[in-house]
């Protein structure tokens, strides 16, 4: 099984996908005039914009749901794995894919907002499958994506998160994987059977607290070794451009693993972020697009960097020799496999009795909330298919399946879990990135409209009909609602120059 999955992954994660992720991010960045820089301050202000309603969640709740999917085992175990196979410079390429990927996240999340609709309960719902059908006009393509998303988020990806939790709990506290499996399954069952509001509320509470706590502890460790920081930065940048004698041999692998783990971690272009983005109740699609662009920064530039700096500054990492898998170019951690064990060892050496346990707890919450987000994404795509197919049975089955996957993955080896996770990410990334390349026009039109209204001193409200956007009738209702709320005449056309 492992060999087969690895063989498929070599095709899915060929250099073509690596360079496609980088190229699309660069292209969108140039076309948006680097919105990730120009609107950085506004991204932060928009985090607290809006509030939850009977139709959707707030911008912050949508961000928390998105971060629940983004901030997971990839931020801890994934960074360690990338450094193992690509050297310290893999961290540089994770930064690059995050910086460029912020524009990609904006495009896909804005599209999700434009083409969202309501589900049977009246909540906003959307994602790539919805905008592929409504904007691209290719229902077959939307169905393929929905099926891939259900397989990836409902079966393949949760296993990575659950396996990492079990491994870290065993390493730090000696807790048997079977006990971890039971705890995760019980908590997850309670939340997913409570619906989108309970998922959003849980993510809103857990994600910011744990992310901040993890970053603070990492900063403390970095400050304790602050004298080494300039050398660490020099090493990262030197090796990123092939100028380091030790790690020059792994430059190609650094790009590959840095981009792969970067996409896995921040999910820009992967097609997962648009699902919670669509659930937000905002007055303009670009608002949530900018919020989601900022989520990429939080994930990679903050959390992943904290992990990477901590590993490199303490020397608690290994770099595998690409010509001999049994040898190492650098061997700082002996007897520990690539993953959360590196981070636990680093923290434990500096903070005995605390470090390893803290990483296990942080990883538990990071990975657990990610599994929650995966369930929501899988459910959203089942609801998409249920618009034309009789799938009343599918959502209850999904809940049972994802609980079984979690239990099974806690008891299996990490290698197979990571390989299956990579396969799921790769399939979704191929479909979504190609799709949004064809659908980018409405997203950038929304950005220009948003910027124009900001210059006029207005709190932007979106009107799809003014821009000639088809199949977005829900915005007639939303724009009228916000015009009334903002104290404007609902009949007044604020978009006339």
Task: Break the fold down into its secondary structure elements and pairings.
Elements: H1 2-12, H2 15-31, H3 35-38, H4 40-46, H5 59-70, H6 77-86, H7 90-114, E1 117-118, E2 124-125, H8 128-136, H9 139-173, H10 177-192, H11 196-224, H12 229-240, H13 251-266, H14 274-278, H15 285-314, E3 318-321, E4 324-331, H16 340-350, H17 355-385, H18 394-410, H19 414-455, H20 474-485
Antiparallel strand pairs: 1-2, 3-4
Short summary:
The chain has 497 residues and is mainly alpha-helical.
What is the domain total for the residues? 1
Specify the number of helices: 20
What topology, given as strand order, has the largest sheet?
1-2
Q: C-alpha Rg, in Å? A: 22 Å
How much strand content do the residues show?
A: under 5%
- Give the name of the CATH architecture: Up-down Bundle
Descriptive overview:
The protein is mainly alpha-helical and 497 residues long. The protein has one domain (2-437): Up-down Bundle (Sodium/glucose cotransporter), CATH 1.20.1730. It is 71% helix and 3% strand. It is built from 20 helices and four strands. It has helices at residues 2-12, 15-31, 35-38, 40-46, 59-70, 77-86, 90-114, 128-136, 139-173, 177-192, 196-224, 229-240, 251-266, 274-278, 285-314, 340-350, 355-385, 394-410, 414-455, 474-485; strands spanning 117-118, 124-125, 318-321, 324-331. Strands 1-2 form a two-stranded antiparallel sheet. It has a two-stranded antiparallel sheet with strand order 3-4. Residues 489-497 have low confidence and may be disordered.
């Amino acid at each position: 099984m492992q060999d087969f999955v690895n063989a498929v992954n070599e095709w899915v994660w060929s250099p073509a996908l690596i360079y496609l992720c980088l190229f699309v991010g660069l292209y969108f960045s140039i076309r948006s005039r680097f919105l990730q820089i120009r609107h950085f301050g506004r991204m932060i202000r928009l985090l607290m914009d809006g509030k939850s309603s009977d139709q959707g969640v707030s911008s912050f709740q949508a961000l928390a749901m998105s971060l629940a999917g983004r901030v997971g085992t990839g931020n801890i175990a994934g960074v360690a794995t990338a450094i193992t196979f690509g050297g310290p410079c893999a961290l540089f390429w994770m930064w690059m894919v995050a910086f460029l990927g912020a524009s990609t996240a904006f495009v896909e999340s804005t599209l999700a907002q434009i083409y969202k609709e309501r589900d049977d309960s009246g909540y906003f719902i959307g994602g790539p499958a919805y905008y592929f059908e409504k904007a691209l006009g290719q229902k077959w393509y939307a169905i393929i994506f929905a099926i891939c998303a259900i397989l990836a988020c409902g079966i393949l990806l949760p296993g990575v998160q659950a396996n990492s939790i079990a491994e870290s709990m065993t390493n730090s506290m000696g807790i048997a994987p079977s006990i971890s499996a039971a705890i995760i399954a019980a908590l997850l069952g309670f939340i997913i059977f409570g619906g989108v509001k309970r998922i959003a509320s849980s993510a809103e509470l857990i994600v910011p607290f744990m992310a901040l706590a993890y970053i603070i502890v990492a900063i403390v460790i970095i400050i304790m070794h602050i004298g080494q920081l300039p050398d660490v930065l020099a090493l990262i940048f030197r090796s990123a451009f092939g100028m380091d004698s030790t790690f020059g041999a792994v430059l190609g692998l650094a790009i590959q693993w840095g981009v792969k783990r970067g996409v896995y971690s921040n999910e820009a272009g992967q097609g997962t972020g648009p699902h919670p983005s669509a659930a937000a109740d905002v007055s303009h699609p670009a608002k949530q697009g900018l919020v989601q662009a900022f989520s990429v920064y939080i994930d990679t530039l903050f959390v992943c960097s904290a992990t990477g700096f901590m590993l490199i500054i303490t020397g608690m990492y290994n770099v595998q020799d690409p010509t001999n898998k049994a040898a190492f170019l650098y061997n700082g951690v002996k007897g520990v496999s690539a993953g959360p064990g590196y981070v636990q060892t680093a923290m434990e050496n500096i903070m005995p009795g605390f470090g390893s346990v803290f990483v296990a707890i942080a990883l538990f919450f990071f990975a657990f909330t990610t599994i929650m987000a995966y369930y929501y994404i899988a459910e959203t795509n089942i609801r998409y298919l249920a618009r034309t197919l009789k799938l009343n049975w599918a959502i209850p089955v999904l809940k049972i399946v994802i609980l079984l996957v979690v239990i099974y993955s806690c008891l299996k080896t990490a290698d197979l879990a990571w390989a299956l996770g990579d396969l799921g990410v790769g399939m979704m990334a191929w479909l979504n990135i190609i799709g949004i390349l064809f659908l980018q026009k409405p997203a950038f039109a929304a950005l220009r409209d948003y910027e124009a209204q900001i210059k006029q001193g207005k709190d932007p409200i979106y009107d799809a009909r003014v821009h000639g956007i088809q199949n977005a009738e829900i915005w007639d209702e939303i724009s009228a609602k916000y015009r009334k709320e903002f104290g404007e005449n609902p009949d007044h056309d604020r978009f006339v120059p």
